[in-house]
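User: Please predict the structure of the protein below. I'd like the answer in C-alpha cell form so I can feed it into my own downstream comparison script.

Assistant: Understood. Taking the following sequence of 188 residues as input:
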Amino acid sequence: MGMKSHALVASAIIAVFATSCAPIKHTSKVSQPIGQPLVVGIGDTLITINNEKSLPNVFGKADLYGRTTPTGMITVQYLGSSGHVARFIRNGVEINTGATVLNSTPKIIPNVQTTETSGRIGSTRFSGTSTTHGTPTIIPARPPQAQVLPQAQVEFQIDVSKERSFSVAGKTVVIIDASPTSLTYRVQ
C-alpha cells in the first residue's frame, strides 16, 4: 500500500469516527427523590439540581465512553413561613471546567521489552524471542482550573393559599403543607 493509500484510509477512518459520535448532551439531575412526599425544616435544602454535559472529544462531539463534566448547580432552601406565605432562597453556580477528552484522560505508557536470542549449540542453530511486561508509566490527566461563577442569590415567597407550586430549572416543586418551622413538598 502506498503513502496515498494510507492517508486515504486514515482519512476515511477519522471521518467515520467523527460522524459516529453523538452530539454534546446537557443533563440535570435532582438529588431528591421524584414524586415522593418530603419534609424539610428552616434552612434545609429542599431541592438540589446538578447540571452536567458530555465531555467533548477532539471533534466537538460527546465522549465515546459517556464521561461527563459538571456545568453548574442550583439549590433552593426553605426559610420558614408566616401565615400563608412560605419563603425560599435560590442559590446557583455555573461551572466551566474546560475539560475535554484530551486534557482529562491520563496517558499510559506501556513498559514492554522484547529480547531476541540466537546462537549455536554444537552444530544446531537456535533462536528465540521473549517479551517482558513491566509496570506501565502513568502520566496523570491535567485538566485546566475550573471557573466557578456564582449566580445572583434570589429570595422569593409563595402565598400557599393561592399557589401550591413553583418551577426550578425545569422541575416543579409542589407544596403540600407549610408551617413556620417545616415544609412538606414533592418534586415533579
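That's the full C-alpha cell string. The chain is about 10% helix and 55% strand.
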